[in-house]
Amino acid sequence: MALRTCLYRQERPVEDATDIEIVCLAGGNHHLGIIGSDLTYMDSVCGQCPIPDVLTEESTACLYLIPIRIFGEVEIETLYQCRVLYDLNPQRADKSPFLHLPRACPWWFPHPIDFLPQGTEWHTHRARGLYLGEIEKPAPPWSWGSASHPEPPSRLDRLLSWIAKRVL
Q: CB–CB of 52/5 below 8 Å?
């Protein structure tokens, strides 16, 4: 099967081996196969993937669009995040790329068709990890953290403590 070109399908050398592995960057470097071996899994996964269609000149994809794929046991889910906004609400992933089109997005900027912008792998990994809860979202810089002194007990707690001391 002839697969469409996909910027998110990457070839990488396997550590401690001479093999070349094919991974899905949108799926968190999900293993698709080894070059020279049986690639029927890659054909089935990549053949139904909507990402190559979204990253075409005709679809006017945004530079800040981050497609992420969630590989379940049975189903593969494709979601779209904004590189600018995913950190604010990681659970707010769109199943449709249409919110990232020029008329719908105030930050829209045309996506390059032949290469991924710098930092895409890092942002994809982070957006996917935050969405799945695999990465903990750091506290915002304006957060003061936990209070240095514990809060005093409420009146009810003090009363119950006093009663317990008297009864025992």
A: yes
pLDDT for 17-50, tens place per residue? 788 999 999 999 999 999 989 999 999 999 999 9
Domain annotation covers residue 129: yes
The sign of the CA dihedral 57, 42, 14, 30 is positive
Domain range for 52: 9-141
Give the CA distances from residue 32 to residues 12, 42, 92, 138, in Å, rounded to whole numbers and listed in that order: 11, 5, 27, 31
Q: How far apart are CA 143 and CA 109, in angstroms?
A: 32
| Total domains present in the chain | 1
pTM: 0.75
Instruction: Give domain status of residue 75, yes or no.
Output: yes
C-alpha to C-alpha distance for 118 and 7, rounded to whole angstroms: 13
